[in-house]
Write a structure and sequence with these properties.
With 278 residues, the protein is an alpha/beta fold. The protein has 2 domains: 8-59, no CATH class; 82-276, Rossmann fold, CATH 3.40.50.150. The chain contains 10 helices and 10 strands. It has a 7-stranded mixed beta sheet, sandwiched between helices. Bound molecules: S-adenosylmethionine. S-adenosylmethionine binds next to helix 4, strand 5, helix 7 and helix 9.
Length: 278
């Protein structure tokens, strides 16, 4: 039985700040969530808080209660050290970018979540379309991108974010090898992903290893569930990617759909299964 969805409200903190109140009211309308006046003593499981300088999620009830608030934070990621910029990182090897002299692959990250993988790939130089279907998670990611934008205009220029189901979106793209051109309703910044070189998938890891999950991932799971439809997302990705599909898996898990990858690149806790196509 899937767990019931957590109850969520929106508020501003400090609640007297007019600008934050306006931001909270807008979120309440956009996300269709109740707006409450004070951030404490509520009957909700989660609070989406328009706080000073950022949007954050506070856990008020349940096993993940207390501790730090959760927010997407991209600027904490190492993208400047030699290791952070290396093309020898498993995720970069997996997307198949070997030499800086080669043009970076265009990537659809079909499971954007808090955007960390999308950010890392975009920081290296790849154009990335980040697709996240959960409206609240997409909102937290959008907030993180906006906060990072002033200091990282070049990275932001390579990322587009859309809040939709990636499987439905991929089904609207032409199959690999098609000569079809983008239709006029596709916005300019999305046209470069019409025939993506790579589709990257990082669905929620299978349950059973919840104790090893960090709090942000545990809370994410209470919102988005277990991504049980990830196998069908892989099918949709295999239809459109022009070079490869990459699936991030726990290091020792079976491949998604039990489909043997062409190759795999191991990280510490995760493995990147590569399906070469085309
Ligand atoms: C494990 S998280 C991804 C974490 C992400 N790679 C990162 O670096 O922060 C999985 C995310 O994929 C999203 N997701 C799963 N299936 C999706 C789909 N079909 N379309 C769009 N988003 C999807 C979930 O809502 C969840 O936020």
């Amino acid at each position: 039985m899937p767990s019931p969805a957590p109850s969520i409200a929106v508020c501003a903190d400090p609640p007297t700040d007019r600008a934050l109140l306006t931001a909270a009211a807008r979120l309440s309308v956009d996300l269709n969530l109740p707006l409450i006046k004070k951030p404490r003593k509520t009957g909700y499981d989660l609070l989406l808080v328009a706080a000073t300088g950022r949007l954050e999620l506070r856990v008020l009830r349940g096993p993940n209660r207390g501790g730090h608030a959760i927010c997407a934070d991209l600027t904490k990621l190492d993208t400047t050290s030699n290791a952070g910029r290396s093309l020898r990182q498993p995720i970069v090897k997996a997307v198949g970018w070997k030499r800086r002299a080669d043009p970076p692959p265009t990537i659809i990250d079909a499971t954007a979540g808090f955007g960390e993988d999308a950010w890392l790939l975009a920081a290296l130089g790849c154009p990335v379309l980040a697709v996240e279907r959960h409206p609240l998670i997409a909102t937290l990611l959008r907030d993180a991108l906006l906060r990072a934008a002033p200091d990282h205009p070049n990275i932001i220029a390579r990322i587009a974010l859309i809040n939709t189901d990636a499987r439905a979106m991929l089904r609207r793209l032409p199959p690999r090898g098609s000569k079809a051109q983008p239709t006029s309703d596709i916005p300019d910044d999305l046209r470069r992903f019409w025939q993506p070189n790579v589709v990257y998938l990082d669905p929620m890891f299978p349950t059973g290893r919840k104790t090893a999950e960090r709090k942000p991932m545990r809370v994410l799971r209470t919102l988005v569930g277990d991504d049980d439809d990830a196998g069908r997302l892989l099918d949709a990705a295999l239809r459109v990617a022009t070079r490869r599909v990459v699936v991030k898996r726990p290091a020792k898990a079976a491949p998604l759909n039990d489909l043997k990858p062409t190759t795999a690149h191991g990280g510490k806790a995760a493995r990147y299964d590569v399906y070469a196509v085309g």
